[in-house]
């Protein structure tokens, strides 16, 4: 390693040690987590509306998957580019703009006259996500006080909570009052825009104050070959996690309705149980990773789900509920650990790394929804659940991750 690289690493270690002694900026973390909740709640309304949209526009399961694919791809393709650009030229006030795009998409969804406008609405929501997630993840790290896993968990739990309450709100509001009632959720988007304006002001001040320190070139302690290999392993794990989750989040209500004869409203309540468990798991994953290391959390959270996933297609309603709660709890603990692990592999590239992993996760979720939707049309929802049950076994590749990255 060169002298400059060693010096850069020494400076990074000193900066990190100083940061670890400071306290997290809880006000900023709370605001960014709340904004994440609002953002992802509005996004989850699309998922929660699938049964309504299917009936309103006579959609096939393949078209349902295409809605997810449109939303996920607009988010996934843009996020790494947004992150890479803002690593070089920070754009503090881009956050409210991203939320505005999501708001416009939501309003369009409420009044969409046909399937084409539904796809356009999904694309606008995806663009909002592509702007929101990389910058918000960067802010969570800035506000962490050195507790990076904890900060990412606080940030992530806002999104998971929003995703969880979306189906619940849909059951209480959208199902009885129809498609146009979605527009009322624009009030929450306006709250999010207000919070993000405040967060953006803090971010701008923080960036200016630390600009001189950030000019220091930061070098990864790992070789390029190791970084590329570890990143590939992490992306395989993201594929396993989000392809599997696509089968749960996009088709769980249909699975419950088809197999157990539940109503749309009751099925959405069961989806809420799964998503709420995912939110709880997210809270636990980051702090545990700070304490015991990222790799054990990654290993257990992906591979550990496999026995429950394999049992799920054969369970009755009670055990289906219990198993999906366990799956949500364990599987959701992975992402914060994976994201922070990747940020530590490539220090100084927080935006690009966050954009890459959020984007890839969204892309795999969208691709999974589309592929599994076509598979469901040609076979059945029950067959889809049997097929995806083997995906968590890919968690075994976590053994290939390099040792040495344990704590922030």
UniProtKB/TrEMBL annotation:
GO molecular function, a single term: transmembrane transporter activity
Segments forming domain Major facilitator superfamily (MFS) profile: 28-407
Cross-referenced InterPro entries: MFS, MFS_dom, MFS_trans_sf
Pfam families: MFS_1
Extent of the signal sequence: none
Residues passing through the membrane, by range: 154-177, 183-205, 226-255, 267-285, 297-315, 321-341, 353-376, 382-401
CC per GO annotation: plasma membrane
UniProt keyword Membrane present: yes
Protein name from the UniProt record: Fosmidomycin resistance protein
């Amino acid at each position: 390693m060169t002298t400059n690289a060693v010096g850069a690493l020494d400076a990074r270690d000193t900066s990190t040690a100083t940061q670890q002694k400071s306290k997290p900026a809880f006000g900023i973390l709370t605001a960014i987590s709340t904004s994440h909740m609002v953002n992802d709640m509005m996004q989850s309304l699309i998922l929660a509306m699938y049964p309504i949209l299917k009936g309103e526009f006579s959609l096939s399961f393949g078209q349902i998957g295409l809605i997810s694919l449109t939303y996920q791809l607009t988010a996934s393709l843009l996020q790494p580019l947004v992150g890479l650009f803002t690593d070089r030229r920070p754009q503090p006030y881009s956050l409210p703009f991203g939320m505005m795009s999501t708001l416009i998409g939501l309003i369009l969804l409420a009044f969409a006259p046909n399937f084409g406008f539904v796809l356009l609405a999904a694309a606008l929501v995806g663009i909002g996500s592509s702007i929101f997630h990389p910058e918000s993840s960067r802010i969570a790290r800035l506000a962490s006080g050195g507790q990076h896993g904890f900060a990412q968990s606080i940030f992530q739990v806002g999104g998971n909570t929003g995703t969880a309450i979306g189906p619940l709100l849909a059951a209480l509001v959208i199902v009885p009052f129809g498609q146009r009632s979605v527009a009322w959720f624009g009030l929450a988007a306006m709250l999010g825009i207000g919070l993000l304006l405040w967060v953006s002001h803090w971010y701008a001040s923080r960036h200016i104050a630390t600009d001189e320190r950030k000019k220091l070139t930061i070098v990864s302690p790992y070789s390029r070959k190791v970084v590329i290999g570890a990143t590939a392993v992490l992306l395989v794990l993201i594929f396993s996690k989000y392809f599997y989750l696509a089968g749960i989040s996009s088709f769980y209500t249909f699975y419950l309705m088809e197999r157990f004869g539940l109503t749309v409203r009751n099925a959405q309540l069961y989806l809420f149980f799964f998503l709420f468990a995912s939110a709880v798991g997210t809270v636990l994953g980051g702090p545990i990773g700070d304490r015991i290391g990222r790799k054990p959390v990654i290993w257990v959270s992906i591979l550990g789900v496999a026995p429950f996933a394999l049992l799920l297609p054969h369970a009755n309603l009670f055990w289906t509920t219990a198993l999906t709660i366990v799956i949500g709890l364990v599987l959701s603990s992975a992402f914060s650990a994976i994201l922070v692990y990747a940020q530590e592999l490539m220090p100084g590239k927080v935006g690009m790394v966050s954009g890459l992993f959020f984007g890839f996760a969204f892309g795999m979720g969208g691709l999974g929804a589309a592929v599994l939707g076509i598979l469901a049309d040609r076979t059945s929802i029950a067959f889809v659940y049997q097929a995806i049950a083997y995906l968590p076994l890919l968690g075994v590749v976590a053994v290939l991750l390099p040792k040495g990255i344990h704590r922030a």
